[in-house]
Amino acid sequence: MNHPKPSGEVKAVAVATADDLRETIRRKSKLKGRQADDASIAQVRELIGSAPHRRDLLIEHLHKLNDEYRALHDHHLVALAKEMNLPMAEVYEVATFYHHFEVVRANDPVADITVRVCDGIACELAGAQSLLTRLPTILGNPNIKVIAAPCVGRCEQAPVAVVHQYPVLFATTDKVQAAVNNNLTAQPDAQDNGSFEPAELAEQGISPQGQRQAISPDYVGYEAYRAKGGYTLAKEIVDGKRDAESIIKSMENSGLRGLGGAGFPAGRKWRIVKDQTAPKLMAVNIDEGEPGTFKDRTYLERDPHRFLEGLLIAANVVGIDACYIYLRDEYHGCRALLEKELAKLQANPPFPIPLIELRRGAGAYICGEESAMIESIEGKRGEPRMRPPYIAQVGLFGRPTLEHNFETLYWVRDIVQRGPEWFSSYGRHDRKGLRSYSVSGRVKNPGVKLAPAGITIQELIDEYCGGMQDGHQFYGYLPGGASGGILPATMNDIPLDFDTLQPYGCFIGSAAVMVFSNKDKARDMALNVMHFFEHESCGQCTPCRVGTGKAATLMQAKSWDQDTLEDLATVMVDASICGLGQAAPNPIRCIHKYFPQEVA
Q1: The model scores a pTM over 0.85
Q2: Nearest CA to 558 among 530, 593, 598?
């Protein structure tokens, strides 16, 4: 092959002019993607303040934008990402994870008012579907959006609708229309002139009866609580008049177990975290998203400082540096009350107190799981963590963390002051302690019942609930909320407590007891909760994300495909990361076992 001979002269070839090069550099230096505009940045800064911003406050900032503009506009999310120095993708994935955030494009219409109608079991039994069907036509305004919502934690007042942040109790179309017409969109403030002594209500009903219940009941405020001896016990512990070991032993001897559902012994948990390396943190779970549960709300909206004193006692005994209270977003009145009373406590503390921050959930049942709650407190998607490590060792912000349910801390003061024997002296059928049962459904007198642990469903209905509603016969019940399984009325003599229901494929959980009658079908109860699980799955693991949806579809058939449903159940139980997917098959298996005639 002949090759050309090299030339002695190299000719210059012009690639670009100097102006072309400058333009290329200018284009490459400009960031890709949508850029924040000055107006949006100014609007964001007006709500959240100027930088720097803590990463863990992302969800709090999203709430401020959502409250102000009734939605999260994309241009505000871009501005928020810039202000917080976060990738837009990270802000977007957090915003779209939570049900109470609605992300919209700049020109998309935003409803003036959103009316949420609870479609949980108690509200379903009380006529929620009729409200959902009729309200859009009756309200007759395209700027008013009517949507179904998971349980809002007011099952004793069913059916319930929420007009923006204003709860309509025992809702009818007329009541909802009146609230909309009168622009009632915020829950009224409660008055701090109430009186409440929970220990004196042992073996009684806590909730008021009748349809004229207060939306925001009177509560015991800071001054009144202290005037009656409040925070005296906590101060004695801080001052060294009571040693930490004696307090932990009182908790252990009382038999108090975690009242959020897991039932881990409270005293043992304190001892475990106390032995960890400082700094240590506390995370308090008031998410209360289990359908049928409303006990925490009932106590909090009447007596918040008894809980706060329990929190401070635990913090001092265990050696906690900072406390984070995670409150579900549906409890707007409780949030306003707690913000007000926390401010009073922090402004005039009876003794030096640790940092206490109140965090607002955003509508995600999964955040009731302790590690998912911790992720949410850190400003992230509420996805459960793999364990180990356990949060007692590596928890919130990577530190050892004491996690408690609201009600567990609520009883600390009474247990220590009255002695552990006071609490353990109650009980039936060889069980010990008191339990706050949230009872709803087809009973005459629903509500929170402070009854002996181990009481049976029949005793609970007859002695505390006034029996079944007129015209209804007891047919079945859910002993532990949506995930606790379903049992027939013939099994009415099982003690309702920790460890007593597992042999029957059920568990007590947070003691959310939902009762249905011969005019209902157990399969409908199971389908309702499976739709709930499908809606609330965080989507992190395939068995739960796909399994709940497939199961809900199969459960709508007149005759169930038992083999396929059992295959799904097995995979969900064996392969799901957290308790949501592991407990979701409980209703399926209970229907097959105890109500086979309904699905054959």
Answers
A1: yes
A2: 598
